[in-house]
Amino acid sequence: MGIPGKTAVKAVLVGVDFGKGGFNASLEELSLLARSAGAEPVQTVTAKRASPDAAFYVGSGKVDEIIQAVHLYGAEMVIFNHALSPAQQRNLEKRLNIDIIDRTSLILDIFAQRAKSHEGKVQVELAQLQHLMTRLVRGWTHLERQKGGIGLRGPGETQLETDRRLIGDRVKMLRSKLDKLQRQRETQRRSRNRSQTFSMSLVGYTNAGKSTLFNTITKAGTYAADQLFATLDTTSRRVYIEPVGNVVISDTVGFIRELPHQLVAAFRATLEETIHADLLLHVVDASSDMRLEQIEQVNQVLEEINAQHIPQLLVMNKIDIAGLEPSIDRNEAGKVRRVSVSAVTGAGLDLLRQAIAEFVADAAKGRQDNAGEKGAVPDPRWDVQVS
Hints:
Blueprint lengths: L8 E9 L5 H15 L1 E10 L11 H14 L3 E4 L5 H11 L2 E3 L1 H12 L3 H16 L7 H6 L8 H4 L5 H31 L3 E7 L5 H9 L16 E7 L3 E7 L9 H6 L1 H8 L3 E7 L5 H14 L7 E6 L1 H4 L4 E4 L5 E5 L8 H26 L13
Helix pairs in contact: 1-4, 4-5, 5-8, 8-11
């Protein structure tokens, strides 16, 4: 996806294989990220190493290869599929005399382009400033040369003349705003609890089809596209599930491997919807060869935000592309563990609704049984009627 009205920036991509597996899939993902930011990948330079080079991340000979690719294809920037240290980025820029963007800056830039709500923009700016503060030791000369662009959109353009103290003040102010927004969300959640509403959150790897599934189930009409990070802002809708009644379902930001820690921290207010859900619908792209690794990446982020204890229902999406049939899989105890659907064609959505209804009923029964054993009054949120 390019930037409207602008010519895509030619970029050379760089990836280092450390022998951990999934290297080719990671490079394909980098290409998608670059295009999502408005760049046009013209060449990919790869290397194999046991560990990163302290000075350039790649060896000096590989740096020469990158320089040749830049000159051959007329590239305007180099994008690394890794997080670079400030020193590595500075050394590479001096050696190549060209803009160097690492994976963290690239993802931050995409978020800056996609953020629409006030909350989303605040979260992205906070993450960008926290990332840029680690690079203030070399001043702003590299930013003045670039005048914005991929990896530096937003605060990179507006804070050129500020110093560390002013940026620190801005970070404090943004954190204060997010704290206020977090309190507002908590108030909304308490209101839902009082209204006896069961809550679910859609989670999953970016571009797994969460928003499409959300729209199909709720008829919400939120933005959905075949691109990375199409959704940044959490949207919640009430939907009726036969026979258990109304539930609230929330669409959340997608996860990705090596999701920058600054983003996870900044988006904690948004991800609170996930932490406080009664059930996570973990949406997986069934057509992806990397689906198992993507499931693992999502679970790692869930652990980072302390949501690993929340029950999950795997939703294998895009079965129309994978050539699979709708199905519902159960464990040895007869409990639903996975449902295969297509959010685009609607195949299997009746099975998904059935699975959700079963979970809500089982959870309600379990809560009421526990309350009865302790002689307590059952939680009214779980007092649902099950036919």
